[in-house]
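Course assignment 3, question 2. Fill in each field.
Student: A.L.
Task: Predict the tertiary structure for the chain below.
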Amino acid sequence: MAIALAIRVPSEEAKMSRAAAVASGALGRPNHVRALPTMQPAERTAAELDRAGTTVVCRRGQTLVEEGDPAEYIFKVVSGTLRSVRLLADGRRYVASFHMPGDFLGLADSENYNHSIEALGDAGLMRYTRTSFEAMLDRDPHAGRRFFGVMRKELSAAQDRLLLLGRKTAAERLASFLLTLADRKAGENGANNREIELPMNRSDMADYLGLRIETICRLLSDLKQRRIIDLPGIHSVVVLRRDLLESESEGDA
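Answer field:
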């Protein structure tokens, strides 16, 4: 028995409608192969960090963590500046480092925090539990490589700090510190690094550089008098002659 097949021939209008749809991309690909936006590894890591973290605010003068507390969290600085401090047995204060946007806190700590962390001004941070942070590193090899780079930078900074405190003079220490802040600003915005913000006070700088506050004030005044820097305000420095400041940091002045 013959079976009749009804074949429907598309009209000219239907052909034109389909061609327009293909041209516009609506029918260009099946849904299951449609191109999707891809994320770079760094963007994917940042997105996962945002999902895993909790936003916290630390007000000026507040302590984020106390030395000796269980190191349950890792923090990323989003805004503001914080300092890591430790009190010595005789009551002297040791400022170990300053933390600015983009820095991570607590990566190097083991069971307990090695320093107290205090806010110099209002600071915003992302907080991660150590277990969730480590789980993310296990899942994402790109994240592991990124934070290996972060730890490597921290180790390099610690080595530079040993050189600064162990071998450099007071003038060389201050010049090196100002250059570090200038380079940090240039790295953040890729623009002018002549104007440096000083979120820390003279006492913080002295305790960080292992000097007396009177020495810091005298050295800043000397650099200003020699027109190497300008001091438009107590919390700002303008580098007028970077070449001379670099010479000062290397002892060639």
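Instructor remarks: The chain is about 45% helix and 20% strand. Helices lie at 12-24, 41-52, 130-139, 141-167, 170-189, 202-209, 213-225, 242-249.
Grade: pending
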